[in-house]
DNA sequence: CGGTACATGTACCGTGTGGTACATGCAGCC
DNA sequence: GGCTGCATGTACCACACGGTACATGTACCG
């Protein structure tokens, strides 16, 4: 902080804001593939073609970089959600099936793994991950409750049902990632649909 | 490996097997409180009153120590499960409620957090955690399926129902740990019971 | 051309790590 | 007593890490 002054973090939109965003994007890719646990500035820098000095330059510290990585990867999840909401004219069951199929797309596996890794580290108290805990449930609950209500459920039970559905999806996702048993997990999910939406 | 020879790992039951077990037990306690992520031999040693040299002495390497810690903490989970199965003469719903209440006992929160942290790191590929993935689902599925079958469900759907129940519990546990909203999560669980066992 | 500001690289530093070498204590046994 | 074997501690090593100091480019502006 004495002589050079290193621009550091500067909101968004500066001429090097692009570079920052680009670096963070590459970092999220790398982290989705290799995890957040043993991340080092040197390793990351080498992987995305930049010296570790540059990462410090643009992000100030490893922690701040991690914060942005976590935030960005969260944003990707949210993008997925909003993409799913824009699907009108299908029955709730089919919408849910569609959602489930998208979530279990093998191409997303790395992203899901990262999600649960960050979740775990946040639960353990890793500072740069902790803030996500606030939104981890509520962000998803909100649209799910809305969907339930528009489907005719009364608001009180709609909340419970939404919360239950979210938990079940996450639990079965954990199962799928651990066992890889797509068929078995899908069958369990179908059972849930039967209980949830009634047979048929 | 050249001169001293350091007894290292020796199955079980040697006269220092006790010391090993005692160290691993203390280590699990420490890890349940502080997590597995930033564990260092020095920090752990200081916490449980032993020099980091001793940990190497008894376990050979940090990785092997971690393996035993993970295994032991898994064993604790399994102990909980078997304690729960020895509860005859109660209806399935009430047994499930009992199980749920025990799992959500705040005293167990640290252990649960550790569970999900290890789960997350195993998904990410941390070598000493990966082996748990095999049993993470099947170990619980087996008794749950048995319970379903003795309750009269046909084996095929019993498997699906058990898998679904396990996932739901884990998903709601994740929710609870993240939000701390005991009331809301309990309500969602009650909703699940209603769907699962029928109203009543 | 000169100069100012920024992007990037290289070299370095202090620290904490896992692991090793070696010394010391302490028990049992001849 | 003296020896042998194990438990424990102290001191050390090499290494990788995050972070810093400083130099070098490189573009734009006068």
From TrEMBL, chains A, B:
<keyword id="KW-0238">DNA-binding</keyword>
<dbReference type="InterPro" id="IPR001647">
    <property type="entry name" value="HTH_TetR"/>
</dbReference>
<keyword id="KW-0805">Transcription regulation</keyword>
<feature type="DNA-binding region" description="H-T-H motif">
    <location>
        <begin position="40"/>
        <end position="59"/>
    </location>
</feature>
<dbReference type="InterPro" id="IPR009057">
    <property type="entry name" value="Homeodomain-like_sf"/>
</dbReference>
<dbReference type="InterPro" id="IPR050109">
    <property type="entry name" value="HTH-type_TetR-like_transc_reg"/>
</dbReference>
<keyword id="KW-0804">Transcription</keyword>
<protein>
    <submittedName>
        <fullName>TetR/AcrR family transcriptional regulator</fullName>
    </submittedName>
</protein>
<feature type="domain" description="HTH tetR-type">
    <location>
        <begin position="17"/>
        <end position="77"/>
    </location>
</feature>
<dbReference type="Pfam" id="PF00440">
    <property type="entry name" value="TetR_N"/>
</dbReference>
